[in-house]
User: Which sequence fits this backbone?
């Protein structure tokens, strides 16, 4: 019975990771051997006691519906509260879908007005971590904030190429602003695009935005109005992995091969829930050789795997070698195939003896259903 | 639509004391199996995959792990508005409380429950066998042969037949005699303890059996022989495939070793007949730089820093640096400490083998750990 | 484990009952005191053993999502099968919603291709009955039909004004056709817009329609191709109430006041399931006077009710008179108000002493949330 | 977040034999109430509305109707992945089977279950009272007053105080004495049988009580006095509002008549604190041309062709032409035949009063029907 309503906004622009999001929203991009990106945000919310969550969606509903179903895996199949997916409205007399997520918000205004909690937590689905939102809410209430921006403090940020272009929070003349990281600062507060707001403030911003009709995106609407409200930041102390590009996706994936990091990510403030797939345990044959890798259930491993992540129901044939790669579910790596620095999507067939070499700086993405024989 | 007229009753009340510490604090059907499952998952998944959605589970002995495991029945899609899975423990009536006195008595005490569903057929199942079976085929067989009772049988080697309840049949699979552990078997068709009954007939025999003070209230010993001697039509349904009663520590260990054969008959990887179990929400398993795994089965959540050979590692078990695990089974959350060496051992759940400890031998199976609460 | 996949198509034109469908699809129009129209089709399917149902929706998702939730009330919150809602796809690069239901079908082709059953039952939501589909499927299979059209046989149809304009099935030169009832025939077979088809035939028709691009509606696509297939009719022997107009809606509502008809409609082949509302029993005060009426739970009845249907949580004040009317949930009829031949939508307030008189031929519809003081 | 640290245990094992035929075939908490509900719905809905999602129900006597009613817990939103509602019947261990020997013993036997949830507090509830209560307020009170035990109390008229367990308190609501049915009460604060315990403390006392052979293993008689005499801090939490123990046929009937007062304190129509129950999927009720209903409560599915006055008609009960039902309760699916006349009667579920039968009198409450299986 948390006093916080979760709102996960999937209506933001997502085209910077296009290879993996052709047929799925960023939210359902597979991650960490058996999860989808959204599992982390959803589970963090559930583990923080949030029992009512709204999901703003704009398109590509099918993959999301498939993954979430009635919401049982997150215990969100509830009579009251639980998970509510907010679709854009399509009136028969209006055949235009407007740009941005604001139109979706507009067509669900009655839902937002009916929220019973006093505060909302607005997030996206592409910041991976194991976060307890309770202390942030406590601070938000204690400080009497209208808006609390959740941040990560970054030191020696000038060398972090991967954080270029991301949102940073700055305080000038007593008021906060959010802008782009252009790499000029060494120490800064990264916005993780999570905001705790009074419900009344959220509703007011939404109403103003719709009435004024200037902004198309919720995030911009909030940023534009920061100076109107009592704003503060709350620094999240645990590690967060942003997923904004293929490069970030690849690096984040390999980060979880560190057992200590995995211990944090999968257990810190509660488990990460995902759709049950009911695959049996993974069978290793006598000739297999696996090192420093995360392997999901349902696989048969006959070859060599190194510094890689293997999703469910993958078959790695005798003599095959998979290094520094990520292989999604239901893929077949035939005998003597050799992969290095690859991201292999679902239902791919790699024929015997095939050699595919990407680069650590630009992993080779093999798209869903491809057959390389 | 005949499957909607079936209620399955799973006998899950027994301790299975020959499994020793594995069942000291939990009922046998809740014992872990195959890295990921509990024994009852096989029977429950068979029900779900056969489209039988009204299932009663008869419990009596230490049911907490079983109850927690089954929950509302979500993993088997048995969380239904009507029907679904229901746990049926003993209860008190105005005449006082009665524990279940035998397999038939357990069903007798739940006649009201079965009547609620008003079924045509009742399928009696045991919750402690490892097998995959499409009960629809058996029920269709029962229906088509106009049987009153159908008993599922499996061919066993002739030399072992005297260890089983043997059903003697005519050419057309009509059973004319039941031999419990015959010294000189006339047949090698062993009863699997799986029965289809016409409910009206069974209800009548259960009531009569309840009044009979000489009865042990057991299906095999009392109900089946009585129905047979009364001349009802009893058919033998021949099952072929993997079927194992994991009633002893030895057979439990053997059944695990069977899983290491990639061509084993149980075919766990078959997408068309999945075995469902409670999802424990742990990440994929991790094998470290120095970890080494050979001819083994690993489940989610495991971490391997040592050597694992011909073994089964259940959910979130850990093999630390320098440890060697051979021909062994680690149950969930078991840990093998640094440099420890295990041979032909079963480590109970949550037990930690101390650093450097050396356990087990080629000659017999060693159970490691005090007892298994079995709750995860 | 029926071998029939249910497909309920809510993408048809629905503008002929506009007063009640401004903010809700026809499928969620309230009916019979506690139900929505779609409850009948859904429950009939469930009671016929159908365990996998696809719902084609085009717009106005919110009311439907609200009503159905995770599907628990119909036991359709399943891991495999269960209820699957098919939304139109909105690719960011296409901002036009086309006319008709075919675009929704197109964007869900992979779902239809994945159907595991051999036959499909295609229906709409606005034919009310308590139908067992099993005999129809048995006939369909036994006769080896590609398409079986479910019909009601009508006698003395020339006097039935309410059936004008509806679909009728005719057989000419050995092949079936479906056309409009213009009132010229006395005996005819009314199509109830339910078809059992081989899945393969359904998929072929859908593919052809999309490739040819002529038809916008599934129904027309099927009718146009009847001559290509082995078609037969199956006559449903139980009563069916079509809801195509306010007049039909009003008449159908009053029909269920006949206890014999109610017995058939609510119990014949299984119960009708709907969303649980958890209202307590209805309290009748000493001065109340109720005759020939159906009253839902949660009401307080202090006045007079006659030949009417009262939905949940309605208050009828002292001295108020409600005759020949239908009152939707959460509405307040204040003391001494007098209503005749009215359909009162949800959350309406009728002030004390107000008099509202409609006509049996054209009931007076008072729209949702109206306050007449 | 303190409510997630609470496990509620509902005692629902008793027969309630003073309810006579109402509880011959079903446990008291499963008895129908108020046209639509069963008695336990009030306690379960209180839990759900208080945000307490880990609930154990202790059953023993004729639990089938209760089990069928509760199912997976959907009506109360208690069908949860972790926590939710769990039925806890007696079970067998290696030491044999034990029936619950008292309220405290029932909790003792389920220490493992409670430990699974690792709660801070345990809320002990009774499954057979009619009331609405926000347990959050009581737990906050317990937390804020730093109590070891908190007992919920209600003021009763002084002249009735000697029928209750009375808690004698100091000015600050600290309890210093427990008087079971005192001849000369010093106070009029009666225990409602609702307790909040710090789990660690209760676990210790349950273990000690289990070893004590002189104990009756009851909360009121043994646990509370012992904890009190050991000097632990025990607080009285004052509840005001409707609260009724429907333990006798008379109080059961009276509680129904209370519902006919539109301003009754129970306030069933309050949207903010709904009482949930299993949805039986029946249509609205129907009153015919000749039917007449006065000052009565009617549930879904009823059909009235006769006269109903000052009565409660439960789900799908029927009053046929010319029949008169006055000051009476019809339980679900009961039928009053043509021309029959009932006065101050309770007709058990599914019972049919024959045409023309005249039953009941002003003087006492008449129970009509053999017994109530209570299964719908």
Assistant:
């Amino acid at each position: 019975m948390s006093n916080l309503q979760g709102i996960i906004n999937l209506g933001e622009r997502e085209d910077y990771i296009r290879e993996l999001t052709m047929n799925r929203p960023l939210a359902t991009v597979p991650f960490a051997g058996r999860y989808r990106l959204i599992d982390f945000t959803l589970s963090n919310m559930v583990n923080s006691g949030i029992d009512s969550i709204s999901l703003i969606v704009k398109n590509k509903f099918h993959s999301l519906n498939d993954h979430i179903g009635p919401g049982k895996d997150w215990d969100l199949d509830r009579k009251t509260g639980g998970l509510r997916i907010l679709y854009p409205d399509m009136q028969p007399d209006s055949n235009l879908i407007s740009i941005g997520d604001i139109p979706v918000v507009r067509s669900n205004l009655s839902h937002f007005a009916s929220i019973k909690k006093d505060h909302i937590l607005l997030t996206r689905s592409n910041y991976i971590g194991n976060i307890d939102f309770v202390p942030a809410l406590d601070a938000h209430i204690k400080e009497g904030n209208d808006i609390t921006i959740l941040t990560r403090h970054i030191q020696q940020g000038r060398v972090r190429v991967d954080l270029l272009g991301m949102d940073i929070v700055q305080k000038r003349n007593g008021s906060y602003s959010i802008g782009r990281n252009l790499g000029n600062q060494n120490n800064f507060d990264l916005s993780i695009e999570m905001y705790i707001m009074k419900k009344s403030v959220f509703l007011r911003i939404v109403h103003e935005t719709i009435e004024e009709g200037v902004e198309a995106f919720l995030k911009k609407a909030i940023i534009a109005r920061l100076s109107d409200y009592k704003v503060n930041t709350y620094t999240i102390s645990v590690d967060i992995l942003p997923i904004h590009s293929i490069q970030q996706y690849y690096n984040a994936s390999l980060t979880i091969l560190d057992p200590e990091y995995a211990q944090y990510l999968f257990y810190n403030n509660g488990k990460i829930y995902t759709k049950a797939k009911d695959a049996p345990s993974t069978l290793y044959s006598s000739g297999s050789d696996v090192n420093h890798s995360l392997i999901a259930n349902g696989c048969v491993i006959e070859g060599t795997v190194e510094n890689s992540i293997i999703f469910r129901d993958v078959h790695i044939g005798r003599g095959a070698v998979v290094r520094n790669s990520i292989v999604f579910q239901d893929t077949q790596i035939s005998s003597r195939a050799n992969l290095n620095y690859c991201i292999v999507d679902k239902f791919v067939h790699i024929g015997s003896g095939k050699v595919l070499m990407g680069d650590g700086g630009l992993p080779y993405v093999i798209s869903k259903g491809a057959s390389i024989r | 639509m005949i499957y909607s007229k079936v209620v399955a009753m799973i006998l899950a009340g027994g301790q299975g004391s020959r499994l020793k510490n594995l069942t000291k604090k939990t009922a046998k059907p809740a014992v872990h199996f195959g890295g990921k499952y509990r024994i009852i998952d096989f029977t429950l998944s068979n029900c779900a995959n056969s489209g039988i959605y009204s299932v009663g589970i008869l419990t009596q002995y230490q049911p907490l792990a079983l109850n927690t495991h089954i929950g509302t029945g979500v993993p088997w899609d048995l969380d239904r508005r009507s029907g679904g899975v229901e746990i049926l423990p003993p209860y008190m009536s105005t005449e006082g409380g009665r524990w279940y006195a035998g397999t038939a008595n357990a069903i007798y005490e739940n006649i009201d429950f079965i009547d609620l569903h008003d079924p045509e057929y009742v399928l009696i199942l045991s919750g402690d066998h490892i097998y995959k079976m499409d009960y629809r085929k058996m029920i269709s067989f029962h229906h088509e042969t106009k049987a009153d009772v159908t008993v599922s049988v499996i061919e066993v080697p002739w030399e072992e037949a005297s260890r089983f309840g043997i059903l003697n049949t005519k050419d057309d699979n009509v059973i004319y005699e039941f031999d419990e552990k015959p010294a000189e078997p006339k047949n090698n068709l062993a009863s699997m303890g799986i029965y289809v009954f016409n409910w009206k007939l069974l209800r009548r025999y259960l009531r009569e059996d309840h009044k009979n003070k000489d009865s042990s209230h057991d299906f095999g010993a009392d109900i089946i022989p009585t129905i047979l001697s009364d001349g009802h039509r009893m058919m033998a349904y021949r099952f072929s495939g993997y079927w194992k009663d994991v009633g002893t520590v030895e057979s439990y260990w053997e059944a695990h070793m069977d899983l290491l054969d990639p061509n084993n008959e149980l075919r766990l990887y078959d997408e068309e007949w999945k075995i469902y179990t409670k999802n424990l929400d742990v990440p994929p398993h991790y094998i470290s730089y120095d970890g080494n795994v050979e001819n083994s089965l690993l489940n989610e959540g495991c971490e391997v820093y040592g050597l694992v050979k011909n073994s089964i590692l259940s959910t979130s078990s850990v093999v630390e640096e320098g440890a060697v695990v051979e021909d062994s089974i680690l149950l969930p959350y078991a840990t093998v400490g640094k440099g420890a060496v295990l041979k032909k051992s079963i480590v109970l759940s949550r037990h930690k083998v101390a650093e450097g400890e050396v356990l087990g031998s080629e000659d017999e199976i060693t159970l490691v750990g005090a007892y298994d609460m079995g709750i995860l």
Summary: The longest strand of chain A covers residues 188-198. Chain A has two domains: 4-267, 283-372.
